[in-house]
Q: What sequence folds into this?
């Protein structure tokens, strides 16, 4: 019988630990909006508020793996309380500075940067604790699904709670929301750190950066890189989707419908996440992740063909069915790939990749909306997820193609040789010829040219240079209006049609990125050939 979500919460200490983590993480859905509104009221400037929020988000996201490393090293009980106390104190100081109008923007900027740098990693810590609370794999998948869906709902409910607080408090400004967020994270972090489940994680300060297999602690392996890549691509697509939905609604004269379409995305994600945890899966995490990413990419690309807002809401909700399962699988794959003393860090890398991708997707699509057709924007927004889905499959496809070519060559050689010799001699000849061809191709790839470089090295350098020119020229062409007409590699403008310059520059950037991937593949094959030789 498949275990239920009730079985997850009935696990000893699971309910108490999960409730403490949710209490603290509710602050993360509430503080950013409260901080932006408080800085705007204090400085009277939207640019200052946006800059403060961007600095807060950047320091919080980019330094998340470093803070998670502290938890891995010293344990939640020793690392979380100091981080939470400093973070809450800095938020309280920010709220005090922004309580009255006329606060110095520089002071607020310093405070929010310091606060973002000390944000306690409650999400990664909770996912690490799930591993010790529910060692059964079926229960662990269900616990991760529940955690992902609950976290998403907290980010939806945080702004609603702030709105209720401001409506009920009357004259109290949004700085009160910052103070309440500081109290929530302080209470949640201390309750989580001193829960019975966290007592068992004492940290790995005695482990001098070595795994049992000799690799450095937390060194990213192939599975972890795939999880981080898929998480970044998912965040990139969702960050782009927010802006594309707003543009679609404005194009159809219904700007007020944006919230309903994004609510459909959240509902679809919650349903998909809960269903994903409830079903029994036989495929491993590494095999499921590309399938979920491909489903998300196809759904997002098709959403751009919607004729009206109701159809777009249905298409977006269908895309949401893949969001929570994809993110949950990325976390499970990272947890499975990481060493026990680096699991918090691995989860933090997945989380960082998602948040950074979301910010990058919004910024990138902001340059394209209004310049290219909206349907093409949806396709471009889905492209990173589709590429992330294909990335793990490419090596296997290439290996299968090479094996098929070898079999065809062997069959062709056997037909030619059988006209003159018997079957046994034919097999011997074919094997010898195949071995000779393989050895010759490997040796030929390592033959140094007069310049001291092999043929593969020269091809890699050429592809890298072409990739640099295409990407540089394409990005420069897209931003030339903002760079006072400065256009690096200006000759590439002759490669794009005059009436579709923006689309042409985007195509050049994509082609350059594809050549960069090809160049990297050639470099890897060069190293593997040298090793086998």
A:
């Amino acid at each position: 019988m498949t275990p239920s979500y009730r079985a997850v919460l009935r696990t000893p200490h699971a309910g108490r630990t999960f409730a403490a983590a949710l209490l603290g993480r509710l602050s993360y859905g509430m503080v950013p909006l409260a901080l932006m509104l408080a800085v705007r009221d204090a400085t009277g400037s939207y640019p200052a508020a946006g800059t403060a929020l961007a600095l807060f988000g950047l320091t919080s996201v980019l330094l998340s793996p470093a803070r998670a490393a502290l938890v891995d090293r010293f344990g939640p009980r020793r690392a979380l309380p100091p981080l939470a106390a400093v973070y809450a104190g800095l938020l309280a100081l920010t709220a005090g500075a922004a309580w009255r109008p006329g606060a110095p923007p520089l002071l607020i900027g310093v405070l929010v940067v310091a606060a973002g740098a000390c944000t306690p990693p409650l999400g990664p810590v909770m996912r690490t604790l799930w591993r010790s609370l529910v060692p059964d794999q079926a229960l662990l998948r269900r616990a991760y699904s529940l955690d992902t869906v609950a976290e998403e709902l907290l980010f939806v409910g945080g702004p609603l709670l702030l709105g209720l607080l401001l409506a009920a408090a009357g004259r109290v400004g949004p700085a009160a929301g910052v103070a309440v967020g500081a109290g929530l994270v302080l209470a949640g972090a201390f309750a989580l750190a001193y829960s019975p489940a966290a007592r068992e994680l004492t940290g790995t300060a005695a482990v001098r950066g070595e795994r049992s297999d000799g690799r450095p602690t937390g060194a990213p392996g192939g599975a972890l890189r795939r999880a981080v890549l898929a998480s970044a691509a998912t965040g990139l697509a969702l960050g782009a989707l927010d802006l594309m939905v707003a543009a679609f609604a404005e194009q159809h004269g219904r700007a007020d419908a944006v919230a309903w379409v994004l609510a459909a995305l959240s509902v679809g994600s919650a349903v998909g996440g809960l269903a994903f945890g409830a079903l029994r899966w036989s495929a491993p995490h590494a095999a499921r992740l590309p399938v979920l990413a491909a489903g998300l990419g196809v759904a997002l690309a098709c959403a751009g063909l919607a004729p009206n807002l109701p159809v777009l809401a249905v298409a977006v909700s269908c895309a949401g069915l893949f969001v929570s399962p994809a993110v949950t699988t990325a976390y499970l794959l990272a947890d499975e790939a990481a060493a026990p003393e680096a699991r918090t860090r691995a989860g933090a890398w997945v989380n960082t990749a998602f948040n950074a991708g979301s910010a990058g997707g919004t910024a990138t699509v902001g340059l394209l909306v209004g310049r290219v057709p909206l349907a093409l924007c949806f396709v471009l927004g889905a492209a990173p997820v589709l590429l992330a889905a294909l990335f793990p499959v490419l090596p296997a496809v290439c290996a299968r193609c090479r094996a098929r070519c070898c079999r065809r060559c062997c069959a062709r050689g056997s037909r030619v040789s059988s006209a003159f010799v018997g079957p046994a001699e034919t097999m011997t000849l074919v094997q010898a010829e195949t071995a000779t061809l393989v050895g010759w191709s490997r040796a030929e790839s390592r033959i140094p040219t007069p310049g001291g470089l092999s043929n593969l090295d020269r091809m890699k350098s050429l592809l890298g240079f072409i990739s640099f020119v295409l990407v540089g020229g394409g990005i420069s062409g897209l931003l030339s209006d903002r760079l006072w007409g400065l256009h690096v590699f200006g000759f590439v403008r002759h490669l794009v049609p005059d009436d579709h310059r923006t689309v042409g520059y985007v195509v050049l950037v994509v082609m350059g990125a594809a050549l960069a991937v090809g160049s990297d593949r050639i470099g890897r094959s060069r190293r593997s050939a040298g090793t086998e030789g």
Residues 205-220, 416-453 have pLDDT under 50 and may be disordered. Residues 410 and 434 are 7 Å apart (CA to CA).
